[in-house]
Amino acid sequence: xxxxxxxxxxxxxxxIDAYSQGCSQCKMLAEQSxxxxxxxxxxxxxxxxxxxxIIPYVLxxxxxRKKIFSLFKNLKKGN
Length: 79
Known about the structure:
Largest sheet: none
Shape: flat
Oligomer: single chain
Structural class: mainly alpha
Number of helices: 4
Helix content: over 70%
Number of strands: 0
C-alpha cells in the first residue's frame, strides 16, 4: 500500500508537459497544416490516427488468419 501511494505521489509530481507530447504522426500533421483551414486539419489528423490504428489489426489478421477462417467456416456450418 505504501509503495502504491509513493508511486502515485511521484507520478503526480512530474509536470504534465513531460508526458503529454502526443505521437509524432499527429505532431507532423499539425505542423504541416498550420496554414490550412480547420476542415483540412481535422481530416489530416483523422487520417493519421486511422493509419496508426490499422497496423495492429493487420498484424493480428496475418498472425491469426487460419483461426479466423476456421471460425467463419464453423459459423457457416452451424446455420
